[in-house]
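Exercise 3.2. Students should predict the tertiary structure of the chain below and write it as structure tokens, then compare their answer with the key that follows.

Predict this chain's 3D structure.
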Amino acid sequence: MYNSYIVNRIRNLYEDRKFSEIIKGATWAISAKILATIFGLATSVIIARMYGAEVFGIVAVLQSFFILTTIFTVLGTSTSILRLIPEHLTRYSPTSAFNVYRKTQYMVAGVSAVTGLILFLCSGFIAEKIFSKPHLQYYFSLASVFILFKSLMLLNQQAVRGLRLFRIFAFLQLLQQLAKLFILVPLTFFVFHPDDPIHAFLASIAITAIVGAWIMARAFRRGSAPGDIVHPMSLKDILVLSLPMLATATMMFVIGQTGVLILGMLRPDAEVGVYAVAVKLASLTSFVMTAINSMAAPKFSELYHAGKMDELFYVAQKSAKLIFWTTTPVLVALVLFGKSILQILFGFEFIVAYPALVLLVLGQFVNSIAGSTGFFMNMTDNQNTFKNIVFIAAVSNVVLNILLTPRYGIHGAAIAAMISMMTWNIATLCFMKLKFGKTTGYFPRLSINL
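Answer key:
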């Protein structure tokens, strides 16, 4: 009965002309994400079984290294480009949108090249002083060269979404994992060197970046015309828009990692591992939410800058409904069967993570109800307000972790994460209600959008 109700709800969304574009794009994105996860798992199995835990650990360190560095080299443009491309397409022309993209691309490339050079020169210091592992210097040096490609890869993936080329976006999501697997397999069976997984990982980043840049240039070239209206936008204007989004991304990183870091400093390694499992399970729905929200973002920008506020909130609330009905069953299952899932998948010793899992799921549930809060704020000229809200949530997360984690361990970290997630979602909904009289939130039989 419940399943048929959900199916009917989703079918109605597909038949909605105003919303069908988003749900079709989300379907492509989710399908690509699932396939990418499968290819990524196959790659992980090959690395773990053929190369061992040490090489697997080096790859994991380099992945974290890229996540942290590209937050700053992309400068928030991976979010702002989602707004700028639809805005210029709506108000001006494809040529105007391409000029903004190209200027942003050059800026990101320049910052990434300088950052990569600095990190290359400092690779010895990073390996010896920060990680206390001098043998990692070679890998950090090599990874520094590819920061440029990683930054451009992230920018191109979001720019494709800005053009609403959803199938191509799905392809780019899949391409990196596919390229990594296809490079690693022949290297493993015909060469077999301990560094093969690292080389395959870095090569896949370069391939995805180059293909993405070629696709973007080709897509804009096909849509541009000699008589297009061009609205010039300076680098300063792009940065004024992007830097608050950079600050938001940094704060989101703090919210996501503080619990693990504090646990790592104050509690045994086994407890950190148990908490990491709880976080991973509670975040199972995140890729669905990200897929839907990311497809909705360029539509938000288009409708907002076209002045179609009623249609904007209509689309936002439809997105929230889709998020709710696709994520809630998973979250409920984690609460009801979490102990069994932990024991079957990870072992008896991980059952102690269940209370933390429930707390984290409650935070995710509020995130699900709230809808596309972050993207809505960033696409509607409210990025500075959202930055301030997330900053407050991040500070509260750090303070609560410092106060609770030493005494309550993983439960304290989970409480801090839950409260900070609830804080920024509820605060954002309140701001929307005060400013627009409506919100992006949805809960069945309870109207929070009046």
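Discussion points: The mean pLDDT is 83. The longest helix spans residues 309-346.
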